[in-house]
Amino acid sequence: MTDTSRQFVLGKRPDGKPDRDTFELEKGDVPEPRHGEVLVRTCYLSVDPYMRGRMRDRDSYADPWDVGDRMGGHVVGEVVESEHDAWSVGEFVFGEGFWSEHSLLDGDDLTPVDPSLQNLSLPAYLGVLGMPGRTAYFGTLDVLEPDPGDTVAISGAAGAVGSTVGQIASLAGARVVGFAGSDEKVDYLEDDLGFDAGINYKTTENYRAALADAAPNGIDAYFDNVGGPISDAVFSQLNVDARVAICGQIALYNDEGVPTGPRKLPQLIAPRARVEGFLVGDYATRFEHANDRLREWVTNGDIEHRESIVEGFENAPDAFLGLFEGDNIGKQVVKVAEPSE
Amino acid sequence: MTDTSRQFVLGKRPDGKPDRDTFELEKGDVPEPRHGEVLVRTCYLSVDPYMRGRMRDRDSYADPWDVGDRMGGHVVGEVVESEHDAWSVGEFVFGEGFWSEHSLLDGDDLTPVDPSLQNLSLPAYLGVLGMPGRTAYFGTLDVLEPDPGDTVAISGAAGAVGSTVGQIASLAGARVVGFAGSDEKVDYLEDDLGFDAGINYKTTENYRAALADAAPNGIDAYFDNVGGPISDAVFSQLNVDARVAICGQIALYNDEGVPTGPRKLPQLIAPRARVEGFLVGDYATRFEHANDRLREWVTNGDIEHRESIVEGFENAPDAFLGLFEGDNIGKQVVKVAEPSE
What is the DSSP letter of A56? Predict the structure, then answer.
């Protein structure tokens, strides 16, 4: 075990697109756990689009980071010291940690990694078995509520959340159409995940025509991670009683203009569409149930998953910045350290 | 009874804001009813914002009018000839008719005017006791679902629908804040209708500050008839689990640009807001119940109503155009002929 540990803090608030200067690498001593705390050595760190919101000096569902604050994020890692009865050295856990090689965490807030899955894929706990998987689970089954025969459209379909949404919707009997940003991603959707159709939004000129072709019966439900012109196309083809889940709006996260409310809502009237923002945290009382389902689907092969892994803690900023370029297929994670077993 | 009758047809499709040339006045013979039909002499004609949509060559929830088509609209009038068993000459009815002095209507589609209310206010059947009243009823109680203690915001609050929404929300125990376009209207909201606060959006510079002042606990439900900057202010102050009913978007109806979907949806995420378009026609199976309630509330004084009356059939286009200038307080109707009693 090293005596020093590195961490990233918010170096400065980005104006528009974040860049390397947004992040500042610091080195310090490895902290000592106090009663109830656990020292976790990070094996994998999650980078997620919502973190862009915390870099802004504006209250939202997650508190903003101040310049100099250590940045938060989900981690999966190994207990290296424990002052909490429930945890022993050598166990693998996941939970909300920090962009740091070691995190002192409250033992009450950690979740064990299922030992039977440990060798399968530790980083899956940051994706399909973690917050993104639960976001997909509740966003699909509680907000979109697809019926058999419905057509479900998804933006950001090859990402951690979108790829899981599409597979859950398929399990529910829906036809699934996904937008993604490369031919490789479209192949992944169609060949590996069983989507009925994928649309490459970077090479397709007319989104409406492509969508009409891929979804000839219109759109009954739309899971939106992106916003912007893809959404314009989907909203133009909503069926009566359509549901829209607003999960993220990555196309707009770097817009520092005065925030306005939704514009151009007349298109909701004819289809009596329901558009709903949601936060996975509201479903906390049902997380265990969702975890069980997702684990079962992953184990029996009903749900495929993939992680894009950037190696090396020092490359975490690049992994984050790549989210806005669409670099990742599936969940973007950073490999910080090799698990010790 | 005259032998000739006047009617308006769509003269040409408007490009942007409609004007007098949008309408063409025609004169013809009074038609004869066939079996099952009733000839209704129009006393009052309704003009409504949704009619703008029917002037556009685009399918929506109401079929577009072709150039030369007689324009449709709700009427309240008197039976002057009947070939339908249910109706006798001299009875007052209301239903979907036309912009014409006489309409041949299917007797099965007409509704009787309650004789006890007839002297109270025939034009109320085009407002609080008609389609706008029912729109307010279902939009409030089924879409917004205000709880006691909630704050409800309304745009277009002094109009036929908005003024009824606010009063129903008050009856449900909510605090009600309305946006309207003149001091006279704001006084009407506050003094006559019992709104907790009114905001004159034509003289107020900072909508957000005014709204924060009028609704210090934030907005739990928003009934939107208008769209645009008023909505921006409301969306910035939504509470968790807020509901937004999209009834109309009069600020945008004359926009002939390429229709885009909703933009700027990130603001829905933190409050987990639900935005829903709705059409009153979907609640047809419960119209009778809504009618009963509304009639009771009007009769016992729980709900106030007002009609803005333009005199003379030939002035119907001006009455319609005035909707976009905010000329009306309460329901805008055209008085076509004096009832014969």
Answer: S
Our CA-based measurement puts residue A217 at a distance from the nearest CA of chain B, in whole angstroms, of 16
Could you give the ipTM of this predicted complex?
Answer: 0.72
Q: pLDDT, tens digit, for every residue of B226-238?
A: 888 899 899 989 9
Q: Which stretches of chain A sit within 8 Å of chain B by CB?
A: 60-61, 224, 227-228, 231-236, 246-249, 252-253, 259-279, 282
Per the CB < 8 A criterion, the answer to whether B71 and B63 are in contact is no
**Contact at CB, B260 and A262, closer than 8 angstroms:** no
At A75, which amino acid appears? V
Q: Which residues contact A143 (CB under 8 A, 6 or more apart)?
A: A243, A245, A276, A278
A72-94 per-position pLDDT tens digit: 999 999 999 999 999 999 999 99
Q: Which residue of B has its CA nearest to A255?
A: B264
B124-to-A253, B110, B117, B121, B129 alpha-carbon distances in Å: 48, 16, 9, 5, 6
For A331, B241, B265, the CA distances from A154, given in Å and listed in that order, are: 16, 23, 16
The pLDDT score that the predictor gives to residue A249 is 81
Q: Which residue has the tokens 């090396």?
A: A312
- Provide the 10 A C-beta neighbour count for residue B206: 10
Rounded CA separation A151/A170 (Å): 10
- Residue A27 bridge partners (DSSP): A6
Amino acid residing at A134: R
Residues 6+ apart with CB under 8 A from A50: A62, A248
B314 confidence band (pLDDT: 50, 70, 90): very high
Angle at CA of residue A106, ends A103 and A111, nearest 5°: 90
Instruction: Give dist(CA B205, CA B69) in Å, integer.
Output: 43
Q: Cβ contact (<8 Å) for B264 and A263? A: yes
The residues with which B333 forms a beta bridge, in sequence order, are: B46, B309
* Tokens standing for residue A10: 């918010």
User: DSSP character for A191?
Assistant: I
Closest residue by Cα to residue A251 from B265, B257, B273? B265
Helix spans in chain A (H): 51-54, 115-118, 131-138, 160-171, 183-187, 207-214, 229-235, 287-299, 316-323
- At A278, which amino acid appears? F
Q: Quick one: three-class SS letters along B181-226?
A: CCHHHHHHHHHHCCCCEEEECCCCCCHHHHHHHHCCCCEEEEEECC
Structural domains of chain B sorted by starting position, each given as residue range(s) with its CATH number in brackets: 4-126+306-335 (3.90.180.10), 131-282 (3.40.50.720)
